[in-house]
Amino acid sequence: MLGEILSDLLGNVIISSINNSFLALIGFVYLYSRYWQPQRVRAVLVQQYGNRYATAGSSVMNNSMQIIGVLLLLTFWIFILVVVSRHGWS
User: Fold this and answer.
1) Ramachandran class of 88: left when φ > 0, alpha when ψ lies in -120 to 50, beta otherwise
2) DSSP state, 50?
3) What is the reported pLDDT for 60?
4) Contact between 45 and 51 (Cβ < 8 Å)
5) Which end of the chain is more exposed for a tag (fewer CB within 10 A), N or C?
6) 36 pLDDT more than 80
7) DSSP string, 15-49
8) The pLDDT of residue 2
9) What angle do CA 67, 81, 87 make, to 5 degrees?
10) Taking Cα atoms as reference points, which of 45, 48, 46 lies closest to residue 29?
11) Mean pLDDT for all residues in the chain
12) Would you state the pLDDT for residue 12?
């Protein structure tokens, strides 16, 4: 029982660390590709993202997933309209 609890806890810590590292990498790349100057990047990081690259990466991923979701919905709606216009409602 104790072994299972420790393995679950250790597994969650490792997964959380990998996730935060991935988001930090995305945030770092995003900020430096958008603002270029290290002083400007540091100012934006402190003002908007609480001095955490992982928060910036999370914001970028969230916005990306929202855009992908909207595009998938639009694609589905267009597909339905095309099918209905070609074959009718019945």
Assistant:
1) left
2) T
3) 96
4) yes
5) C
6) yes
7) HHHHHHHHHHHHHHHHHHHHH-SHHHHHHHHHHHH
8) 61
9) 150
10) 45
11) 90
12) 76
Residues making up the chain, counted from first to last: 90
For residue 6, the Cα-to-chain-centroid distance in whole angstroms is: 29
Tell me what pLDDT residue 5 has. 67
Give me the DSSP letters along 63-81.
HHHHHHHHHHHHHHHHHHH
The model scores a pTM over 0.90: no
Write down the residue that tokens 């402190």 correspond to: 46
Which tokens hold the place of 56?
Answer: 């910036």
Place of tokens 């430096």: 32
Cβ within 8 Å of residue 30, ≥6 positions away: 56, 57, 60
- Rounded Cα distance between 1 and 17, Å, is 24
Token pair, residue 20, equals: 């935060």
